[in-house]
């Protein structure tokens, strides 16, 4: 049996390197957009294609002909759409579900294979690493015991993808809100939370709250308005 994993994040690639050597079958990895072509997939002929973290729309010729499974960081159908982690934290959520679902042309609307709980404490980087380990166990489950996807049940809620400008920390924010803004964007490849002061931009990471005091690393740059 052949399996394919498509992901662009280091934390998922590290987990892939572990379970691809432990699980039965022949495993292949795609880690850039250009490699995900119907021709390449036909050569592999996978039973399943798993997408732990993929930033592009998968062509319909692939989703129509192969079992494509993606992973979304909400308890679907709640939270369909973009920036799930950041939207969850902004909404005050402490925990969530990782949903493994069938990939269709309608975003995050496919049938559900299984769900697993995820704690949202800590930085985005820590949460993503934690989620990669959970997703690895979910892939393990689906490979060992075939599961049929079931239709999503419940009220549909849509999340909008956050823009880089929305990383600006709102004025007069409480320490808790500032902490959440910093930690929810504190991951490789994400725009840091920031404030602007005159011609300077201050970006924050590694935030901590101890005894009612917020501390964080600060990087200051001069804004060029030319």
The gyration radius over C-alpha positions equals 19 Å
Strand order of the largest sheet: 2-1-3-4-6-7
- Share in β-strands: 25-35%
CATH superfamily of the largest domain: Formyl transferase, N-terminal domain
Based on CA inertia axes, which overall geometry fits?
elongated
Report the CATH C-level class of the largest domain: Alpha Beta
Low-confidence runs: none
**Class based on secondary structure composition and strand pairing:** alpha/beta
Main sheet: strands, sense, barrel: 6 strands, mixed
Mean pLDDT: 95
CATH architecture type of the largest domain: 3-Layer(aba) Sandwich
Number of strands: 11
**What is the first-to-last residue Cα distance?**
58 Å
Can you tell me the number of structural domains? 2
């Amino acid at each position: 049996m052949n399996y394919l994993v498509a992901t662009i994040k280091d934390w998922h690639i590290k987990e892939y390197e572990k379970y691809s050597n432990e699980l039965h079958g022949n495993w292949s990895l795609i880690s850039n957009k250009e490699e995900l072509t119907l021709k390449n997939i036909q050569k592999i002929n996978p039973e399943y294609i798993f997408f732990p973290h993929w930033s592009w729309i998968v062509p319909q010729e692939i989703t129509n002909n192969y079992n494509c499974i993606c992973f979304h960081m909400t308890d679907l159908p709640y939270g369909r759409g973009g920036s799930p982690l950041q939207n969850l934290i902004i909404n005050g959520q402490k925990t969530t579900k990782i949903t493994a679902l069938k990939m269709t042309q309608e975003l995050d609307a496919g049938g559900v294979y299984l769900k697993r709980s995820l704690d949202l404490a800590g930085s985005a980087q820590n949460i993503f690493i934690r989620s990669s380990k959970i997703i690895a166990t979910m892939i393990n489950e689906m490979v060992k015991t075939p599961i049929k996807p079931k239709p999503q049940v419940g009220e549909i809620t849509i999340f909008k993808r956050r823009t880089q400008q929305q990383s600006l920390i709102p004025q007069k924010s409480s320490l808790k809100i500032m902490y959440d803004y910093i930690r929810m964007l504190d991951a490789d490849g994400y725009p840091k939370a920031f404030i602007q002061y005159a011609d300077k931009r201050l970006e924050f990471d590694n935030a901590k709250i101890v005894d009612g005091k917020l501390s964080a690393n600060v990087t200051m740059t001069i804004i060029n308005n030319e």
